[in-house]
Batch of 2 targets.
Target 1
Amino acid sequence: MGRISRVFTWRHFLILSLALNVGFVLRFVNEGVTSRAEQSIGNGFCVDEKMMKFSETVMADGEAHVSKRSSHVSSSVNACTDGEDRVINLDHGDPTMYEQYWQRMGEETTIVISGWQSMSYFSDVKNLCWFLEPVFAREIITLHKTVGNAITEGYHIVVGTGSTQLFQAALYALSPSEASRPISVVSAAPYYSSYPSVTDYLKSGLYRWAGDAHSFSKDEPYIELVTSPNNPDGFVRQAVVNRSLGIVVHDFAYYWPQYTPISYPANHDLMLFTVSKSTGHAGMRIGWALVKDEEVARRMTKFIELNTIGVSKDSQLRAAKILRAVSDSCEKIDGKGENFFKFGYNLMAGRWRQLRAAAHESGLFNLPEFPPAHCNFLSRAFEPQPAFAWLKCDGEIEDCESFLRSHKILTRSGRHFGVSPKYVRVSMLDRDEIFDLFVERLSNIH
Amino acid sequence: MGRISRVFTWRHFLILSLALNVGFVLRFVNEGVTSRAEQSIGNGFCVDEKMMKFSETVMADGEAHVSKRSSHVSSSVNACTDGEDRVINLDHGDPTMYEQYWQRMGEETTIVISGWQSMSYFSDVKNLCWFLEPVFAREIITLHKTVGNAITEGYHIVVGTGSTQLFQAALYALSPSEASRPISVVSAAPYYSSYPSVTDYLKSGLYRWAGDAHSFSKDEPYIELVTSPNNPDGFVRQAVVNRSLGIVVHDFAYYWPQYTPISYPANHDLMLFTVSKSTGHAGMRIGWALVKDEEVARRMTKFIELNTIGVSKDSQLRAAKILRAVSDSCEKIDGKGENFFKFGYNLMAGRWRQLRAAAHESGLFNLPEFPPAHCNFLSRAFEPQPAFAWLKCDGEIEDCESFLRSHKILTRSGRHFGVSPKYVRVSMLDRDEIFDLFVERLSNIH
């Protein structure tokens, strides 16, 4: 201690301070009984048979009767076994793969908030979106400039409790308030499995799910959801209906260089983004919308005011610090910090190689083939390497989800995405241990 | 430096660490341009005429056409003047009054979260409410035990993005999913001004606002909202309809000892609480529900899953630390920490004395009179001292809100609460500077 102190500088103080903070946080988290083992149950670690019911219920769809079955969740969990009994849950897109990057970043991205801060409802009353933290808004603009995946000049930023809330805010803002019947909401199949249930769970008189955009033929106003790259299949998309009465909402949750080539800075009327899939911080529940029309942005803000009276300031401040770290990592040319997107790109590239090799070795599964494209951010061409694998079972296997379930691999059936049960969606974003176990087991299914 | 280091102990490290944290936070917040001045604009500090429009729009109601007027908000704000030109905005219940307590608590309640923590969607997959942080759940139970304002044994806890989201989750959970028409939602006037708009903004086919509970006569299922103590008038309430087909939701946002005597531990079927009005942390957007019926709790959880896929982990962890500090402050008998509720009680008692004196001096305003009751927590009898003053203008003044607006005092008209415009609701929770300015100006209106 004495020797340390003789060379005490502010830098040392900082290191000591942050070291202590880790201690406090760890102690705090341990007190919370949210041990790593427990946290992991939901997203891939060993669980008993009853846990397999869980993936059917949570985030699969909004049917009330389905939720009843999640009573099984509260049952106790068996001890881990590392062999074939271990259930691999890749039903959800829980982005825990990114934990290793942020652990390597150390305390540079630690957020510290005093008890007396951020108490007011208001963040910036001069802003149209009065609950948007200005520092978060600035970091959103910096990140899009750095990556080149979206234009921010001339756009209003609306923050949301994840992009799911912003999606509903967009439906509210774009629905004709005086219409005699709800406006149709469509998306090209395979579409994100939550769109139908999130659109219809309140039986709103403003909007109504109308299914696959390919088969939408009504000559009336409609809202088309374009997810690009697409969840579940990873392909780049454009609107398919293209009628005069249509309004398009672009979900760009996956338009980041670790998943797909950044071919142009997006400049559509209404674009949704989220930290869950860009930086991996799903637990923050933070998303943002870039909105061209002022009145639409105002109505989206009104929706979030009525729905949750704003968005957590704590998470906005933390998200600002995370986004700043990501932008900084892209500027660094020396060895000081690893470029976040290069880390993500390399990890996804390796995982897709592993998965394609396993599917080939098994011989029972097909994966989509993607044309390479040039990425302006990474200054090279590559094939998309999506956050989800859109797996198709071969031959006689009609229900791919049940087939994989029989091998204790939990995935999401194509049924939920409006297509055949021969398809399943598999998360590519889980921790290394789980992903390796998955590809190993898949390769041994013959 | 050298002398400090010779007596270096972990306690010193802690103090140094926390001292540095303050520095980091302050720097961080300053970078955020969310300066105290800006934060304050929305809740009472000096603003120009255009700002007066703001209170008409934000959190007043959900009418889309109203939100248009908030375009004025983005206009610039005039420099402060301390005299009569200064607009006093007490329309919202922004609980900034509590900042002084948490500032005095210092860094004891500082939250520190590393970049790699709380990344998963899941908090406790074994819990019915799978996104509820276990440490937060435990602190909720401890606080209710300490205060004695609610029973927690045999209840399920559901966390929400503020109690506004939980209110909607309750409507979703309690509505018959197969009903031919929406269930009626009622509350006795004067009722919380947001109930009608939050119930109807999506034109849900599940539930529909049916107005004042006193005039509800339909012989069909209904949901009655009972806010006790009531927002806006502060009176203790029970259900008024009392029919066999009714379901009651109790909003206990203000059932805390600083506002009203704690006469019994509440044990109703569905009870809502929020940190916004209990500890003053509105910016966290954290509330919780105590729910007796497992299926209702499961459906509320499903609503929040569909609405926002869970609740900010960062704010839950911070709320846990704040609730723990409140519970601890109630245990302390030495001078180490000030009892949070005694602080709040004394502050509210003083403010109500000031307000009644000012109303008396003016002679133009009436305030409700409350019967004293025994508080089991403070072990004494006292009269309720609500978070809002329900002010009635005397004689010829028919529109009290416009009258006070002409004196640059922004309040919320009785119209929004289902009663006469002779009434206004005034926030009692703003910072000392604003409250003192308010009572001074009120006393001079003759």
Note: The first helix of chain A runs from residue 2 to 6.
Target 2
Amino acid sequence: MAKQPFIPPFGKEVKLSDYSTREAEPAGRDKGKKEIEELRLELEELHELIVADGRFPILVLLQAPDAGGKDGTIRSVFDEVDPLGVNSVGFKAPNDEELAHDYLWRIHRQMPGKGHVTIFNRSHYEDVLVVRVRNLAPKERWKKRYDHINNFERMLTDEGMVIIKFFLHISKDEQRERLQERIDNPKKQWKFRAGDLEDRALWEDYQAAYEEMLERCNTEYAPWHIIPADRNWYRDLMVGRIIRDRLNELGLRYPPPEPGVAGRTVV
Amino acid sequence: MAKQPFIPPFGKEVKLSDYSTREAEPAGRDKGKKEIEELRLELEELHELIVADGRFPILVLLQAPDAGGKDGTIRSVFDEVDPLGVNSVGFKAPNDEELAHDYLWRIHRQMPGKGHVTIFNRSHYEDVLVVRVRNLAPKERWKKRYDHINNFERMLTDEGMVIIKFFLHISKDEQRERLQERIDNPKKQWKFRAGDLEDRALWEDYQAAYEEMLERCNTEYAPWHIIPADRNWYRDLMVGRIIRDRLNELGLRYPPPEPGVAGRTVV
């Protein structure tokens, strides 16, 4: 796998304060927006090829702080892709049946089959994020999960899955602005939950939990990408490029016709 | 976990020829059959307690050569248990949707939740048995699965599952007799498949695959039990005892009543 930008060095400590939340070239906005248009069409074609090729299950996984832009990224990047062929799954607080099973049970069920693309809007990583910060399970329990998750993702990739993981990295100031906008804008008020402010008060705890996740579950077979996400256009551009480049590495191809089909005349 | 009989030493090579396929005390048949009757009633009560206790998912897993007695064991040992509370799942050749996913996908979906007992009649171990012997996947692929399976079972047990695994060990002669009986007995002919003879011709290959499975996937958290299975009564007795003893180690208890319930008079 070619080294990608935004992948932290493997096996090294991750300090989010070392990673920018802003675009590298502020002047590039108009050019960037134009490139996103082209990227969407490229991804539409690549998606058709994934379906035809039929060999790879593709998982795109997004984690971010509240108001980090997960929904917006998915809407923008997959704007042109056939919605019938892409499945987006949001993981909320587990229900009673899910809680009766191990935390990977509901995740595994939703995994894509060969030739399918699934987008995880939150994921099994919540079980080392909110579960940790909010003390929903004892440390004895969640501290074993980093290894579980690496082993799970290794099995999935050994068996052929392509896993592309994004952490949308926003600043604390940017989150404040976005939450305020949700409160002030009547069309966005429905997105605001009182719990968002409780989680915001735990910002530092969440950053520490993200850092451990980005450090311990960053692997050659399923690396994390830390995306500067204060600016939507830049975030979408980087996510789109990374997905396109990763899919282009797979050697996707339209399968050959069945024997005797090529050249045949339909009468 | 207390050391159980029939568990091979951890991390050591397993040679099936070192393990008897026969009962230890041939004279004990009548006594044994009586004990099985009592065991069934004990297991019925233990099962009620598992449901009431509601903390543990219980998985009983059976692997065996053809005609090894998996169905018979389940019928006998769980004879008295409330059939509504026990789920038996047989894994046959995977269908198209299952084949589009990793081999643990269909397995994970069927795992018991807390307070439930599930019996696996065959399992994910087929993916290092028939898949290996019949070359259904390249060695590069299946050789990684021993580690996958250990990691998977570790995650499940870390999250609270109790896994009890049995290999029903029969001799090649005993299999011949049982397959012949299936051919000769009109009421058993339906159980006979032509593939059984093909698999029998591969007996040595299967024994080698069982040995590697019993060696590499025999762990403190999910040990294998090698059960002498040429005699049904002895097999059932050993399996029943092991399940009972393991469940008795869990400290199962009826949950206390809600506050204010005890001593209250219903008017």
Note: Chain B touches chain A at residues 57, 97, 100-105, 108-109, 111, 113-116, 141, 144, 148, 151-152, 154-156, 158-161 (CB under 8 Å).
